[in-house]
Amino acid sequence: MSFHKNLITLSIFAVITPVVFADDHLQSQQLETIQLKAHPLVQSAADFAVADHVVEHQALAERGATIGDALADELGVYSNQYGSGSSRPVIRGQDGPRVKVLQHASETADVSTLSPDHAVTVDPILAKQVEIIRGPSTLLYSAGTVGGLVNVTDNKIPTQMPEKGIEGQAGMRYNSGSDEKLASAGATVALGNQVALRVEGSTRDANSYIAPNYFHDHDGELEKERRVGNTFAQSDTVNVGLSWIYERGFSGISYSNRQDQYGLPGHSHDYEDCAASGNALIGCGSHTGHTHDEDEHAAGPWVDLKSERYDFRTELNNPFAGFEKLRAHASYTDYKHDELEENTVATSFKSQGYDARLELVHNPIANWEGVIGTQYNQQKLDITGEESLLNPSKTQKWSLFALEHKQFNDVHVELAARLDQQKIAIDSNQKDFDDYGFSYSGAVNWQFAPSYKLSLVGSHQERLPLAQELYANGKHFATNTYERGNENLSAEKSNNIELGLHYEQDKLDYHVHVYHNWFDNYIYANTTASYKDFRLVDYTQDKAKFYGAEAQASYALSDVYKLSVFGDYVRGKIESDNAPRVPAGRVGTKVDAGFDDHWSGLAEYYHVFNQDKIASYEHETGGYNMVHLGVSYAGQYAKNNDYRVYFKANNLLDDQVYSHASFLSNIPQVGRNFTVGLEFGF
After folding, report:
1. Does the first or last residue of the chain, that is N or C, have fewer Cβ atoms within 10 Å of its Cβ?
2. CA-CA distances (angstroms) from residue 408 to 365, 417, 444, 466, 614?
């Protein structure tokens, strides 16, 4: 760990001391900017299907350090937070494999889809932007992502030469809720006229967070606690990339090293002796006691994670006749995390992942523009120890995909399709999985009047089951479950429709989206027995439906103030029962202020309603009010070198917040807290 800490320090130090490398007179060859985004057509907002949204780096710098928390306040998005170290986005009531998280359009190859306590190995703090993608575009990267797809766009492989020979940014912030101290920095340096080097890193250290009126059970007695135990988080990331940038494109490689340590709150030893027998739990409650050493992790188990990743990306304009652009991307990820108790490894998760994709953007054919491509990914998974709920497995997937779009006067049409072939080999006497899925989608955007647009999206999607859903058999204490897979599961099939209305003028703009998802054979963990909060779950398939709405309207009150109102709602049912962990409805308002070229501010209020439409074995969660206030100042400390200072007050009312979308819905989230930070670029 010491070597890695030193590497982090050296990386940040090198970035924030550009005078060592900078030469104001350095003449760099300036080539056309090459933009890399999840959507390969690099379209305007009007060309997207519906509801695509981009969160820029400036906003990400002030938000949560995990991807779910970073997006939790976006319309239609919640977080299934698991302490401070792990979270995934919940979009339109969907999470896990139905909300794919990508690292620059590539698989993360971690184990975050297995359980909410497993961190997603993307770093929003170092991201250029985060894209929330819906509509036909999702089929370019995955099938069955009914909720949407999240692409974290990074900077670690340079795509253009820095203008002055060196450019970059650095930032630091402090948060009072968890005594979080976070620093990040990145720089791109020209090595001659056509070679660029990127070095970036981040480090984070957060204590267990505070929560209002929090009472914790100590040996049967409730004791008031200021902090929620075992919610600490530490993280260090280093990325190094090198690119050759030429007239028609670029080719680059990168190396990433990430290390995390974070607590797993809500752990109980009461269920360690539980076993499954038929449709019943046996042996529960026979555990006689457990003691902990007096150390920094005495509050409970914790995760020690390390991930190493290698990436190669290339892009070539006009590669050969008939095509405008070629893109290729390959990655290898070596991932491991240990779950420890009393500083002893209880369970180890190891994953080795390969991902490769090729995209070709073709020349217009009868005014149809589009992209075709292929993708291959493989993941070897090996779990050992107390929670070895799955035998070693290897998942292989081959994919073909295509997307086409065309403008017909005031109507824009977009079509997409994806074919997946998946094989899973399991190291047991269970049968291997071999099946395919075919998904297709279409969208129509009609500019039926000035400033008005009507959008309609329809899709049929087929998601192939995960190895865990097929072969799990064992205890999983993070979710308080004993999980049993079903090797006879078939592809999950859904039919989906979405209708949107958009209006945009100088002062007023609004959009409304309503959607409905029908599943023929929804894959879920069905509870068949329970002991207290511990459940026996069997992966099965049933009919399901999810429907909901999202709306937002903004009005410019003056040149300074802009007022917005927003709301979202989702309802989920499996057969005749409520779907689990579906977030409650939310309504709110926000005022953005741009006082002058330097000062800006925001004030935001929203109310989350109580969730009483609960699944079996769930508990109601109360509603709460959330108030955020923020102010920032932007200026220049030298010619063409800018800085920004910001302050933000979060949960200003100090409301108790229980997230129904989380497996830890009985544990409060952070109370009133303040963030202060500084960013500067060069």
Report:
1. N
2. 14, 21, 10, 40, 46
